[in-house]
Amino acid sequence: MSLADLAPAPSAAAPEPARLRGWGGGPGVATWRLRPDRAEAFAGALAMLRERGGFSGALARGMGRSYGDAAQLSGGLVLEAGALCHVRLDPDTGVVAAGAGVTIGELLARLVPAGWMVPVVPGTQHVSVGGAIASDIHGKNHGIAGTFGQHVLALGLLCASGEELSLAAGDPLLDATLGGMGLTGVILWARIQLAPVSSPFLSVDTDRVGDLDGALAALRAPGGPHRVAWLDLLGSRPGRGVVTRAAPLAGAVVPPGTRGTATVRARAAVPARWPGALLQPATIRAFNELRLRRSPVRERGRVESIGAHMFPLDTLDAWPRLYGRAGLVQYQLVVPYGAEAVLDAVIGELRRARVPCYLAVLKDFGPPNGAPMSFPLAGWTLALDLPRAAAGLLGALERCDELVAGAGGRVYLSKDSRLRPDAVRAMYPRLAQWRTVRDRVDPDGVWRSDLALRTGLVASER
Ligand SMILES: Cc1cc2nc3c(=O)[nH]c(=O)nc-3n(C[C@H](O)[C@H](O)[C@H](O)COP(=O)(O)OP(=O)(O)OC[C@H]3O[C@@H](n4cnc5c(N)ncnc54)[C@H](O)[C@@H]3O)c2cc1C
Known about the structure:
Elements: E1 16-20, E2 29-34, H1 39-52, E3 58-61, E4 77-80, E5 87-90, E6 95-99, H2 104-111, E7 116-117, H3 129-134, H4 142-145, E8 152-158, E9 164-168, H5 172-177, E10 186-193, E11 195-196, E12 201-209, H6 212-220, E13 226-232, E14 240-248, E15 268-269, H7 281-294, E16 298-305, H8 306-310, E17 316-317, E18 328-336, H9 340-352, E19 359-365, E20 379-387, H10 393-406, E21 410-411, H11 421-427, H12 431-441, H13 450-455
Parallel strand pairs: 2-4, 3-4, 15-17
Antiparallel strand pairs: 1-2, 5-6, 6-10, 7-11, 8-9, 8-10, 12-14, 12-16, 13-14, 13-19, 18-20, 18-21, 19-20
The structure holds flavin-adenine dinucleotide (FAD).
Flavin-adenine dinucleotide (FAD) binds next to strand 3, helix 3 and strand 10.
């Protein structure tokens, strides 16, 4: 079976002024936005950049789900890849060729009924293939599946020269593109090896835990490969929470009448004029208490759809608006196994600074891959949603950066909006290796982003 191509979106001829921001919200920045209607039109946009001048550089953008400033460029030309939306499956090999603008949700909706699963999915289905590669995203199953990039067999990259390169796995430029945050060029398409799947369901084991140590132990217990802990950090015992371990369910054992798909629909949306002040520690504390009490103390083999289990946040559209105009900072760190004390120390640092954490998620990672800027390393990753308006936030996070870097860990660039260059250098020891490969294909520094300029990933002068 071969899946038909999706219809191409209409062309956008000239760049239009736009205000772009990260998923975490905030005021955003003024940019020029262009949505080329086919792969060749990206090279045309580059030619325009060279001839017309007046832009601070260029950057590809997918679905804008990176939390900070990774997908924006103040005064620059932002090339949206949404129109690159072809999907072709080879049903015999489970290799899919997809345009960079196709989302994980679109892939799942088409591929799971055909018996194939995207091997690594993030916590939202609204992430593009280009964004998944540029951030080298991880899922709840990193321990067995690694990152998204490890399943990419080949990709098409539009370089700053206007040339389109076809890169195979193992090519140093492909490795530099994994986790390269769009700074090697525009990813146009990718060929991805899928994993066989027999139903859109998972079998889920759940344990309620009393503290952080309990969560770490439950994440290491035998069970399914999709592992995650939700933690309550606002209560009197920070770290109590709920741990789930999920495994694909064989089709034959789906209980009769069970319904579900590999994606979810938004059931509600937060209004644009939401009064952010309604989100307070007391409200979240009460919500967390309710969530804990409603969760079973110990449950085995509950059947849940992939969509409901993997993408719970997608049921509430535009949820960052809950944080009001200032938005949120997501701080995601990883520290090696053995450095568990740093998790406690980071939580303690934020509590001492009276920065409330409204959502905390803990996962375990397996070994890192060969891509120099890929985020995961073998250890624990903690993601914390923090209101940007909280006084003391930035100072507390700088102290956390020191703790994390000191333990040989790092902070995820795809979620970042405030790391300093010295912290990035300390956290990403293969930065110089990455720069050498990148500078070779972009000697004039065409590709840049606010993240790259702020953290010194690329030089500010051109
Ligand atoms: C609710 C939620 C849950 C999440 N869960 C996870 C998770 O579990 N694991 C995880 O790893 N991440 C997670 N993320 C982060 C998300 O997966 C990444 O930020 C991802 O890169 C977003 O993809 P996007 O299409 O929105 O890209 P954008 O946000 O638009 O861009 C992100 C980066 O990719 C680059 N880029 C985008 N498209 C291209 C292209 N075609 N060519 C070159 N560069 C490109 C951009 O320049 C930018 O640097 C989550 C985000 C949200 C909002």
